[in-house]
Please model this.
Amino acid sequence: MFYGKREQRGVVRAPAVVAQIHHYTIRRLRAEIEPVAARDFLNFLFTWQRVAPKGRMTGAKALEVILAQLEGFEAPAAAWEAEILPARLSDYERAWLDERCLAGHLTWLRLRPRGGAASDKRASPLRTTPIALLPRRHSGVWTSLSPQTDGVRQSPRAQMVADWIRENGASFFDNILEGSGLFRSQLEEAIAELVALGLVTADSFGGLRALLIPSSERRPSRRRRGVAAFDVQGAGRWSLVRGNAAAANTDAVEHVARTLLRRYGVVFWRLIEREAAWLPPWRDFLRVFRRLESRGEIRGGRFVAGFTGEQFALPDAIGALRETRRQGDKGILVAVSGSDPLNLAGILTPGPRIAALTGNRVLYRDGVPVAALTAGEVSFFGEFDPATEWQARQGIAARRAAGSLACAAAGPYRR
Model:
């Protein structure tokens, strides 16, 4: 009986002992982390997201890698092919995105619906409509987290088109044109309104691309397999975006948490402040991150200095972060669009924020914002010598997406 009782007591105490050892191990691992400065973290992000000069990728297969990092990120519709994707793929071609969408691997949609006056059918808001690109198989996860679209006001024509698609299912442009009785221009305006409201999407990104350009300015261009680059009719089927009726569950929150880790390598509250406001609150992410740390899948600790709250990182990111710090300053200028997820000026660094608009740009030198392009005007956050200022102006004002410029041989930057 004595040995049986002692064995029973051991069984009761064992889980507590194991838990104590586990917590001690986590505390020890966290204590080993040496935080880096925000500028080093930004330099790390330029490489992690393939925007740095030596980090950009090439080829159609690289698109999938890039979009895996950017899954669920909302950017103005016009920014994806004008700024964000070419910033990471030096030889980006529109056909790559269309082929992935038409094959059923990718989809695009507005995750954050908006209201507004039903008479607002101008083409310009569509250019600034926040659009997300994501794997089609994950669309249900993201729509379960996004707000419902019930009660959104629509114009009579948009309502007619939405009702027609609802009754007839996903349909080609010509079928909707014939069934609705609208003129072509009227149908395009109605579809553009539904896209801007987050109510419809298409099989191909080409449909959105075509709607961004007024019909009078479209020029047919040859592409692979003879498909026009700006053709609403060649977009495949138009369908309603169906939200997930079920409430977001733990699995959905974990999926988004893993996506954020993939996007930034290191995640903390201040960093994801720019992400969609309708995403789960930080406390929900915190529970997921702690659970993943407990499993040994990620690391917790103080990775970036100057920010309160818990921080979590992928194991691969930790080594890359240390390597970035060891490299030191090299005088590299990197310019990104205001709509890019790497527009973190005023969030991770002192100084003003740059509005997340496609036409805006921010210029970093070794991870420090030094200039911005807003409303067509370049403003500097410090003093440059004439030669460096000229190079900075060239880098930030370039029309190519996310230009980068090495200026190690240029004059010193004075703060």
About this structure: The longest helix spans residues 2-31.
